[in-house]
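ingest -> validate -> predict -> emit
validate: passed (alphabet ok, no gaps, 307 aa)
predict: started
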Amino acid sequence: MTMIKTLLSLVLCLASGLSHATHNYQDWWWNPAQSGMGLNVGQQNDTIFVAWFNYGDDSKASFLTMGGVLSGNTLTGTLFRGTGPVPGSNYNPALVKQTAVGMATLTFNSNTDATLTYSYDNKSGSMALQRFSFASPNFNQTWTVVDTYTISSCADASLNETVNKIRNVNTQQGVGANFTLTTTDLNAANMCVAAFASQPAGSRLTATGTVACESGGVANVVIDDFMIQSDYLNFSYTVTGMSSDRSCIQKGTMSGAVKKNSTNTSSAFQVLNTPLGTPCFNVSDPDVLGQCSLKHRNLSMQNRMAV
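emit:
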């Protein structure tokens, strides 16, 4: 039991670390019509640091920086230009100087597009930005994740709930920008398969598709902020159009790591996820991508399958 509690704590801790703030803007950003310059945006909690690489009046490469704490979806700060010594064994950081040259405001209009407004060196203007995609994620992997979701807006208020669940997720690359995502319990039961068409957005992507479960039924799914980084997976999702109650909306996040083949770990996870009664993991249930809570497991399957 101690081992099980420890494993659960580790997984929940991992999920907490991977479940970034609703808006994480860390990425490379650019305007495709102005290729050759762009912004590197770093984010830690609500603090943003921006390095804008561009060109000076002499056409030589240059960069400006600014930083600060986000105010909602906006960062306003002083633009600095740095000077200093060349790299090498004699590099002296004391010679680095930062000079304020102007102001800028970076507004994130959504999680995938932004606007930079600037004024420096007697120049002013604005430009639209989007995340810069230069690599494709490795979809062909299996993950152990923590699925945290809330069901709301149901006509039958008893279906509204919040659930945490540990499960397996398998992602597979399809043709072009398409991919599939399969979820199961840790004992491989209660499988649902979702097919998506994705849109790259820098180090992340968005996707729309449908999900179908082995017990029948189809629902609509939208994925936002999908990110695979090394051995880690994180994304948020919204499910609508469930046949048990079409007014229900399921919103959740899945965060976890590449599944490792470990007998002890697998056994512990299976103990943690042993169903307490009849499982109800299907699209006809209110919680499409998660197993129903105990209060729903005693409902008859006939009632639950009603459209």
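The mean pLDDT is 81.
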